[in-house]
Structures are given as C-alpha cells and as structure tokens.
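Hi R.,

As promised on Friday, here is the backbone we talked about, encoded as structure tokens. Could you run it through your design pipeline when you get a chance and send me back a sequence?
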C-alpha cells in the first residue's frame, strides 16, 4: 500500500525536497503576503488588540509559522510603530533554509511560549496527510469526511495535531489563514475527488511526488478548530480585513496630489485583491484566543465562513 503521507513529506521536506531546498513560494504561487503590506497592517491591528488584552507585556511576540520567504514577518517588522514596535519580537519559523531579514529571528521550531500572536499563513495546507480512497474506517474520516465508494480524501488529522500544538504554545491569539472546506460541504460530496494539487512556476500542475512542485490540499479548518478548542471564530478573509480597517479609500478629490492619488489607487487595487470573491477574500481566518484574551476582544461579530 502506498504511504501517501510519507511520500508527500519526502517530496517537500526530505533533503533536496521542494521546500527543504529553499524554493521560495513567491516564485511558484501568489499568497496574500506577496500582494503588499496590507495583510501585515491588518495583523498589526489584531496584535494591538492582543497586546491590550494581555496588559502590554514587556516583550510581545509575532510569530510567522511556515514563513516561506518571510515576507509577512518582514512587513510586520517594518510596519510596526511606537511603543509596540519597541516591545515587539518578530520570529519567522520554517523548516526550509534560514533567510536573513532585518529585525526578524529565523528558527526551525516555534518558540515553546508565544506571548502575542502566532500566524500560520498558508502553513497548514503544506502539512502532509494520508490520502485515502473510500470508504474507510479511519476515525478522522468517520467524523469529518464521510466517503462514498471511490471518493478520494485527505485525512486532516496531521493538520489538526499541528494546529493544536501551535495554539497550545500561545498566550494571546493564534490565527490560521488558509483555503479549505467545511464538514457540510465534504459530507454533501462537493469534494469527491479530494483537493490534492501541485504548483510550479505560477501554474497548477499534476501533483507529482518527486520534489519538482509544491504539493498542497485544502484544510479542514473546522476540524483544526475543534482539535485546538477553546474560544475560536472562523470567518472569511474578506470580512476580517474589513473589520480590521483594510477597506478601499476611494478616488481622491480632483486637484489633489497626483502621486498620492496614484498610491491610493494602487492600494485600493491590492485591497480588492486581498478581499476578492472567488480569490483571496474567500480564504478562512481561524482565530483562537487563549490565556484570558477573548476573540470578542479582537474582532466584532462577523458572519461564519462559507468557502
Ligand atoms: C505554502 S508555504 C507558505 C509560505 C508563506 N507563509 C506565505 O503565505 O507566503 C508553506 C511553508 O510552510 C513551511 N512548513 C511546513 N511545515 C512546517 C513546519 N512543521 N514547521 C515550519 N515550517 C513548515 C514550508 O517549508 C513552507 O515554506
């Protein structure tokens, strides 16, 4: 029998594997941190809420889990201001080769204790899983992805465990941002062929387990939420960014500074991309609050995520 999880793991993370050899996600696919600094700006608003709820600790962490090229960590470091910036410690965590970024520590394992905000941005979709053709008596599938004859599915248990471990390290808040699916849609047969996919050089390709491409699958974010437990919310990136103040500014009054108009227009374009229906705006934001912080301290009530 093929051990899909082991083959997937080796293709990405064994010596010479796709991420292990240091392939930069930016070369192969577009993620929200690559669009511009606006995601980091939103996360700094979230971090400020965590900071206030924790009583402004002397050292405040921002941890970028599965940092890839480190763009998000670098933007958070560069965009932070004032007293928060003085107390801020930014850490990028990745199993790939270390990158040198000003003001960012680069490590292979997340810190044992994170006081502040941990973000796994498109991290969980790169955590390898077993791939199964159903029906199956796997307990995770029985609970989270009932299969019919010939249906294919990725068993999300390794993602659940990875996320529960990450959240368990955090005093403050932990946020997973990813594409994914929900039980109701899985059970209704919307993903009968599974979601395994490959990406190389900006294109979707056949997922081949030879290290030549990224291999990814949608994340069962509802299962991750249940595994980590506690106080959590699952909302869309579109709604979360709006709630954190990342909204279009609209055209400037005629007669204003043309360079300011140009910059505002470019920013509006980036915000539209981050919030697009059928695109990045449909990503799920799974936010857990811990150690006395409440999700209600960090985000207003928003509609539940519908991928
Ligand atoms: C899809 S890329 C996302 C990169 C970046 N966060 C972004 O959104 O542009 C996933 C990254 O997670 C890293 N990764 C996967 N499992 C990891 C683990 N257990 N610990 C640290 N990094 C991990 C991979 O090496 C890869 O760089």
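Update: got your reply. Pasting your designed sequence below so it's all in one thread:
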């Amino acid at each position: 029998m093929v051990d899909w999880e082991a083959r997937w793991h080796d293709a990405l993370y064994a010596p010479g594997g796709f991420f292990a050899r240091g392939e930069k996600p930016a070369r192969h696919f577009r993620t929200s941190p690559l669009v511009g600094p606006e995601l980091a700006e939103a996360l700094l608003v979230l971090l400020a809420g965590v900071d206030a709820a924790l009583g402004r600790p002397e050292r405040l962490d921002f941890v970028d889990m599965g940092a890839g090229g480190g763009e998000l960590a670098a933007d958070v470091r560069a965009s932070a201001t004032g007293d928060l910036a003085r107390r801020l410690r930014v850490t990028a965590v990745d199993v790939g080769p270390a990158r040198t970024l000003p003001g960012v520590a680069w490590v292979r394992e997340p810190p044992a204790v994170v006081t502040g905000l941990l973000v796994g941005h498109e991290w969980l979709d790169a955590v390898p899983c077993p791939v199964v053709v159903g029906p199956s008596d796997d307990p995770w599938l029985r609970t989270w992805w009932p299969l019919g004859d010939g249906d294919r599915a990725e068993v999300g248990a390794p993602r659940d465990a990875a996320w529960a471990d990450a959240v368990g390290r955090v005093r403050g808040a932990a946020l997973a941002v990813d594409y994914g699916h929900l039980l109701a849609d899985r059970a209704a047969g919307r993903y009968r062929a599974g979601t395994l996919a490959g990406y190389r050089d900006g294109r979707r390709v056949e997922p081949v387990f030879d290290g030549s491409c990224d291999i990814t699958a949608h994340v069962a974010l509802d299962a991750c939420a249940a595994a980590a437990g506690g106080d959590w919310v699952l909302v869309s990136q579109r709604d979360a960014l709006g709630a954190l103040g990342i909204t279009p500014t609209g055209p400037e009054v005629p007669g204003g500074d043309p360079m300011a108009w140009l910059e505002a227009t470019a920013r509006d374009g980036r915000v539209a991309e981050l919030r697009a229906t059928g695109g990045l705006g449909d990503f799920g934001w799974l936010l857990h609050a811990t150690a006395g912080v409440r999700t209600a301290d960090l985000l207003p009530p928003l509609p539940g995520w519908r991928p």
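One thing I noticed while checking it: The mean pLDDT is 95.

Thanks again,
M.
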